[in-house]
Specification:
Blueprint: E1 2-10, H1 14-32, E2 35-41, H2 45-51, H3 57-64, E3 68-73, H4 89-98, E4 103-108, H5 122-125, E5 130-135, E6 147-151, E7 154-158, H6 165-180, E8 185-190, H7 196-209, E9 216-221, H8 222-231, E10 238-241, H9 243-257, E11 264-268, E12 274-278, H10 295-307, H11 312-327, H12 341-351
Parallel strand pairs: 1-2, 1-3, 3-12, 5-10, 8-9, 8-10
Antiparallel strand pairs: 4-5, 4-11, 6-7, 11-12
């Protein structure tokens, strides 16, 4: 296997955790006799400082020419001005749109040894194994028109939620394909009692479900889904929803695992490079202190191996190594341990074994 990977470390703890993930990929490449090359590029706040843009055209082209993109995190207090014309988050949105990444996959599977790391009772998280599929390039975050104006002496702002039938169909079909290989259940989350976009979402989802007779479908309003994620999370298998609802629900679901630092994600489309990143932010308050949890980034690297490079054995080996490190109690502060980023990374590297 020969592959080229673009690394967008970004801001805050991004460089620290992507360094860990890259070290894991290099270790896997050495064990499996693969040739992986890496190109470091800028995104987010550091890109704004360097070139005035959160994602330069040259970096986007480098990503398009790659086999996969490993991403850290963007943003921080120095760029924290929602009214600014250029913001770090624009880099993420531009990357997703530019690479046609319409689906974000976020697995949530709490480790048994971390039952005490979540505020929920142990029996609530027992057996939880969820994949949240979030639509990534539509909805409020991309809808037009977007407007902020003063009218009759008062400020007024407008955001538009917009979806087409094709945008809904492709992400829902992906969710059904995933469910067909798992426990054969899809929960589609919407707000069809209020929103016209959700009524279209529900209609198209029902049509897609007819193509997968072996997969059960349930529709659920987003407020009910938010409640069920903490009251009965083990009842979910694959959960699919639109962009903003998915953004909120996946952060809520991170509580089930015990820390946002543990959860990976994959943003994928139809062919082309995917983007792999931990779901946490840039955490500027701990940047540079060597205490960030690298496991979300490392597990994102495992998803990169699986979804973009087709290396299932190698991906599973990384996941087993992470499980073993957690079970042995080698943990960062966010999950009740005292180990640093480097300690956890080294432990994972030493635990990777290919069969």
């Amino acid at each position: 296997m020969n592959a080229r990977i673009v690394v967008l470390a970004g801001d805050g703890i991004g460089p620290e955790v992507t360094a860990s993930a890259r070290a894991v990929l290099e270790r896997v490449a050495a064990l499996g006799s693969h040739r992986l090359s890496f190109e470091e590029c800028l995104i987010g706040g550091c890109s704004i400082d360097e070139c005035g843009s959160a994602l330069s055209p040259g970096v986007l082209e480098a990503c398009r020419a790659s086999d996969a993109v490993l991403l850290g995190a963007v943003g921080g207090p120095r760029w924290d001005n929602p009214a600014a014309a250029v913001r770090p988050e624009q880099g993420l949105l531009g990357l997703r749109k530019g690479l046609c990444l319409y689906a974000n996959l976020r697995p949530v599977k709490p480790h048994p040894a971390l039952a005490d790391a979540t505020p929920l009772r142990a029996e609530r998280v027992r057996g939880v194994d969820i994949i949240v599929v979030r639509e990534l390039t539509g909805g409020l975050y991309f809808g037009t028109p977007r407007l902020r104006e003063r009218k009759d002496g008062r400020l007024r702002a407008v955001d538009t939620m917009e979806y087409t039938e094709d945008e809904i169909r492709r992400v829902v079909a992906l969710a059904f394909r995933l469910a067909a290989r798992r426990r054969k259940k899809v929960t589609s989350v919407d707000k069809a009692n209020v929103l016209e976009t959700s009524r279209l979402w529900r209609q198209v989802t029902q049509e897609v479900a007819a193509e997968f007779p072996g997969v059960a479908l349930e529709h659920m309003l987003v407020d009910t889904a938010a409640m069920r994620l903490v009251s009965a999370p083990a009842a979910f298998d694959v959960l699919v929803t639109e962009n903003m609802f998915g953004d909120i629900l996946t952060d809520e679901a991170s509580v089930l695992a015990g820390s946002m630092g543990l959860l990976p994600s994959a943003s994928i489309g139809d062919g082309g490079p995917g983007v792999y990143e931990p779901i946490h932010g840039s955490a500027p308050d701990i940047a540079g202190r060597g205490i960030a949890n690298p496991l979300g980034a490392i597990l994102s690297a495992a998803m990169l191996l699986r979804h973009s490079l087709g290396l299932e054995e190698e991906a599973a080996a990384v996941e087993r190594a992470v499980d073993g490190v957690i079970a042995r109690g080698i943990r960062t502060q966010d999950i009740g341990g005292r180990a640093g980023t480097a300690d956890v990374t080294q432990a994972v590297l030493q635990s990777i074994v290919l069969s």
